Amino acid sequence: MIGHVLIIEDDKDMCEMLEVGLSRRGFTPRSFVNGLEGVAAIDTEHPDVILTDINLPDVSGMQVCREVLAKWPEIPVIMMTAFGSMETAIEALRVGAYDFITKPLDLDILAVALQRAVDHRSLKQQVQVLSEAFARIHSFSGLLGESKVMKDLFSRLERIADTETSVLITGESGAGKEITARALHEYSRRKKAPFVAINCSALPDNLLESELFGHVKGAFTDAWQDRKGLLQEADGGTLFLDEIGDIPLSLQPKLLRVLEERTVRPVGGNEEITVDVRVVAATNIDIDRAVADGAFREDLYYRLNVITVDIPPLRKRGADILLLAGKFVGDFAAKQGKKVTGLAESTAKRLLGYEWPGNVRELRNAMEHGVAMTLFDKIVPEDLPEKIRRHAGSGIFLETGNPVELISLEEMSRRYIAHVLKTVQSNQSVAAQILQIDRKTLYRKLQKLTD
Question: Does pTM top 0.90 for this prediction?
Fold first, then answer.
């Protein structure tokens, strides 16, 4: 992508040199010899990037940068000066400049910096469009989904969010139990108060008790001062107890008392402290079986399980897999600064055919991996984690030892080209030599790779 560059530089000869040099490199430059004129022209010029000198006769380049970011935050600003120093560079970046270039200018290096800034702006615009599109998709707080099972879930959450009722969230690991608990909190009257989460399986029994209920000074070794527990920290808000099925039997009566009496007694303390907290719990085990086996108190179970919310596994959500994958690709592309716009058709088919034992968490991880690995504007199957690439393979192996499916010759060609490009670090000249085709032919094939 080549862009429109607005140049602010008080040296007319430098302006002319920049206009000629950047025009030859495909840019559309327009120069101004003072800062006020340059800034005033932004609304009519609609530049993709602004290149400004730091030292100007009327205003400083720093002031120009601040005003641009205040009024046109989407336009990246690159600053240049003949007096380069680390302090000046840090100050320029601190006020929000996208990049910093020192004179004398190397036009090729400058062109790369400008192109990178233009690409960055384009990427941010794509992410914004994608975010707005996702905002129109049926959702509930941070949860996304268009499948019937998710719409039913959203409807249930809407009915119970603004109640004081205890909720037990069930579902497989990685399905989204904590984000569901957060959604309940965000839609409740408690949303301005704290949301506090703890994994009950992550701490030893004695530490879990202190973490939940707090302790007084001297209650045990290293208890040097009074400390509030999470139940007090969540006062007025919501406490999320993840993996509640793993809470030890010795602590269950104490938690039951909190739910019934709305009071907390810290470890080693004698006084009851009143708390106002909504408890939302979650588990991925069969808690009915735990009750039957005597591993979980029945009375506590009924206190926690006033309303059950079951999160469907990702494999039962159909096209939501691609919806979520697209969201994750957009997020990670923006974070990694890469121009990745989505999934190749063959990748989408692979995702839909996979079982997703790790649910949404595994999909998120796979898309982060794909964005990091891809050489193209769309994620191809070779960019996915090996476990997903290998899924449902025929067991037939190439000489490389990689498992493949029974696929068409065209698909095999596409995969091999991708493999060669990765091997040579995307050097198309070298790849063309290995493939024994000219660069134009390779370019045409690359254009078809993500069709």
Answer: no
